[in-house]
Amino acid sequence: MFYRFETAIRQQDDSVTLPYWDSVLDNQNITDPRHTVIFTDQFLGNGDGIVNSGPFKHWRDINNCPLQRQVSRINHTELPSPGIINMIENDIKVRYVKDVIDHFGKAEQKLTIEGQHNLPHEWIGGTMDILNSSARDPAFILHHAFIDYVWEKFRQKQKRLGENPEFYPPLGKTYETDKYNLTAFHTANRTMDCFPWMENKDGYRSNYVGILYEYEESPKCPNCGKSKYLTCSHELKKMHWYCSDRFCRWRFTHMGLTHNHPRYCRRGWCRVSLCL
Ligand SMILES: [Cu+2]
Questions:
Q1: Which residue from 203, 171, 187, 189 is spatially nearest to 105, judged by alpha carbons?
Q2: How far apart are CA 248 and CA 46, in angstroms?
Q3: Contact between 224 and 243 (Cβ < 8 Å)
Q4: Ligand 1 centroid distance, CA of 140 (Å)
């Protein structure tokens, strides 16, 4: 679906590539993830209330509702965990689809790729936190593109371990799957909604990635993907080098609106709101 979306945009501008937001990087590297540069004027606009800054300011959806967010306003919400995402991508004990999808009613939901996927929806809040409206926030695209990236990493691991990533497992039968008729919705041979020429199992084909598209590696030290926005940084307490963004942040209020203004530090990185 995202490939189709990217193709549609490229009909207008063939230089466009869908970006992803590695929310783990923000969770890992920023003392307070609410200060991520993603929710500033430079990128997706403000994260507190109705979006009134950045490229999507004053957006309204097809129901004339304004785009809105409540970043980290709901108690106990957090961004995806570096440890769990690393487990999904690299732990050889986590090798079957059943190990990473959410079986309703199980206590370890948060350990699954689906459970981790839920977190930024709740953390961003507002439009993103409602099933029927979430895709109307451009953050949805950046978030889901990242989840697709993690899923592909899992599939690459399966290949390395000799598993077949095209195997579509039966969902099994639980009280919840019965209650919501999920087994019927998710059977391998069910026709996909809106794509009548495809069945669910076709979504597991391996020939999309590599032939139609591929994923850029998430930035890592020492060169941080050669991004002009990132620099390799080090904090004693974390005992390792990591890619940190080059922005200094401060907030101000003007005409009743809170603005989150980053200053881009072209060289070096930010220390106590100063570019050093
Ligand atoms: Cu989602």
A1: 171
A2: 16
A3: yes
A4: 7
Task: Please determine, for residue 209, whether its predicted confidence score (pLDDT) is greater than 70.
Answer: yes
Q: From the CA of 122, how far away is ligand 1's center (Å)?
A: 10
Number of domains in the chain: 1
Q: State the Cα–Cα distance between residues 276 and 248, nearest whole angstrom.
A: 10
Residue 189 included in any domain: no
Q: Which of 67-81, 148-162, 228-242 has the highest mean pLDDT?
A: 148-162
Between the CA of 232 and the centroid of ligand 1 the distance, in Å, is 30
Mean pLDDT of 114-142: 94
**What is the CATH number for 137?**
1.10.1280.10
Paired tokens of 107: 């206590």
- Report the separation in Å between the CA atom of 234 and the middle of ligand 1, taken as the mean of its atom positions: 32
Q: Which of 59-63, 81-85, 147-151, 174-178 has the highest mean pLDDT?
A: 147-151
Give the Å distance between the CA of 35 and the centre of ligand 1.
22
Q: Is 56 within the bounds of a domain?
A: yes
Give the Å distance between the CA of 135 and the centre of ligand 1. 8
Its pTM stands at: 0.86
Q: How far is the CA of 42 from the centre of ligand 1 (A)?
A: 24
Give a yes or no: residue 71 inside a domain. yes
**Average pLDDT over all residues of the chain:** 84
Q: How far is the CA of 230 from the centre of ligand 1 (A)?
A: 26
- 132, part of any domain: yes
**Type of residue at 163:** E
Q: 118 C-alpha vs ligand 1 centroid, how far in Å?
A: 6
Q: Assess whether pLDDT exceeds 90 at residue 98.
A: no
Give the CA dihedral 194, 205, 108, 150, nearest 10 degrees.
-100
The residue behind tokens 């949805």 is: 140
Domain that holds residue 81: 2-165+206-220
